[in-house]
Amino acid sequence: MTELDERLAALTPEQRAHLERLLAERRAAEGATPEAPAEDVFPLSLFQQGMWFLEQVRPANPAYVVPGAVRVRGPVDARVLRAALREVVRRHEALRTTFALRDGRPVQVVRPSVEPEPAGAELPVTDLRQAGLTPAELDERIVAAAVGEPFDLEAGPPLRLALLRTGEDESVLVLALHHLVSDRWSFWVLLAELAALYEAFAAGRPSPLPELPVQYADFALWQREQHEQGRWAEQSAYWKERLAGAPAALELPTDRPRPAVQGFNGGTLPFELPEPLLRGLSELAHRRGATTYMALLAVFTVLLSRYARSQDVVVGVPTAVRGRPELEPLIGYFVNALPIRTELGGEPSFTEVLDRVRAACLGAYEHQEVPFELVVGELGTARDLSRPPVFQVSFAYGREAVPDLALGGARLEPVPVRGGGARFDLELQAFDENGGLGGWFEYDRDLFDESTVARLADLFGRLAGQAVAAPELPVEQLELLTEAERHRVLVEFNDTDREWPADEGWIHRAFEERARLRPEAVALRFEGRSVGYGELDRRANRLAHRLRGLGVGRDTVVGVGMERAPELVVALLAVLKAGGAYLPLDPELPAARLEHMVRDAR
């Protein structure tokens, strides 16, 4: 573990002694989840630890809000709904948890009682019946209700609800939880309990739900016990070996330079794959002993490899760590991240890439319990505030089993809600939808324009279609351009034939003539300063003499890797004056691409 991880993970001697005494009493029951001591202060789980750190870097980060919504078709009693919500909060300590620093270490504090937001005897209703909202505008209101306001993790609560009235007997129930206390599974746990309690309370009956055998703090203690006793040593060794030599980052070409600190400024773009194409991928996967999920991940990996020009791609995939039955009914953060590394060297076909992805996934699933934070520590990965460690692109795919729920006589239907921030450079969230594939690309708007992500989404579908049609074709030969795009690049963009005045000759000769005739005229302006033709020509001449002294002449290619500034123009002119040719090398390009350009140009 890194020094930071050790500091976050460490307990005080008193806490450690108390924990050891508690766990010693239960060692006879091997594998049982330990119960928490009768205290309200507990260490963070190892899953929570990394997210807590990111919250300190960027407080009130909308990327770590778990939003959800359901359409309620039928009448709703807001007072009964409030009572049901209070009982859910009483049952689940995670919903009464706040976060604080004690003795310089982050802890979770379970409060005896917390009033869910917004406070009051009944759940406030926002009436939108006369607003005349379009579906897109309603989506915006739902997102605003879910992620519009930040959570105060020190004061709590980490849960927020809103009821939007959209018709006479139709509403949208919006729920939002902070990721430190919740995951997507937890959303359905909360909704199912709300439905059961609402039905009982509306009929004047007591809660029908049994008391929970353990709470999330128990899981946090158990998880730390596993780590301290070395239960994950073998799993950690697997990840250390599996990720050895992997690139520190996947350098996707971006529309803007990467900020020094990740901004989590998210955008989303809807995405879909038609049913015949998804079926074709599924059938291809089945023939290779793989799953539809693996086939989709293979397509995504090929897309990233081609786009970043990298033959070593690491994609993060989330997995729910709820292997024990007593954890299934809990609300809490049980998501681990698995880095799926795929190497695409050797000109593999798509079926070979699929086989490699399948093997990587199976190995990851066998070693999924060790928390990702510990994997990062084992790798000794330096913390870079500009990007996530190990992987910067994520893929999530699920067949969400939506339960048949109701609030009394009102039927509930899920409403997709996109988050308000970006945890990664790029993330594809996909799910089955009417036989096909639906979802969205989530992207960092500090890096990418929407048009760039729209092209990536189009390329995903194009690559998937070619993979199904020709699975034995090397993935490097899969076509990224349509016929129209190919014509534009190869023909239209290259239609550069122009008549050049015979008396002006080379471009630098024409520039020298302009400098002789009008030396004081402004040749270029940059950041508030101007440079005249005469000064620019003199500076270029000095550099040209230097280059000639270094051997630059006819048939010499000179690499020019500079940012846009007057010095760049001086360098280009000087290379031409010295008799050579210049090769522009954009400093923003990935290092591997620059190395290839230099080698190719000799």
How does this structure look, described?
The chain has 602 residues and is of the alpha+beta class. The protein has 3 domains: 3-216, Chloramphenicol Acetyltransferase, CATH 3.30.559; 241-490, Chloramphenicol Acetyltransferase, CATH 3.30.559.30; 507-601, Rossmann fold. Helices cover 39% and strands 20% of the residues. The protein is built from 18 helices and 19 strands. The strands form 6 sheets. It has a 6-stranded mixed sheet with strand order 5-6-7-2-13-12, with helices on both faces. Strands 8-15-14-11 form a 4-stranded mixed sheet, covered by helices on one side. The model is unreliable at 1-34 (pLDDT under 50).
Annotation keywords:
3 domains; Chloramphenicol Acetyltransferase; 602 residues; 19 strands; alpha+beta; Rossmann fold; four-stranded mixed β-sheet
Quick overview of this protein structure:
The protein is built from 18 helices and 19 strands. With 602 residues, the chain is α+β, with helices and mostly antiparallel strands.
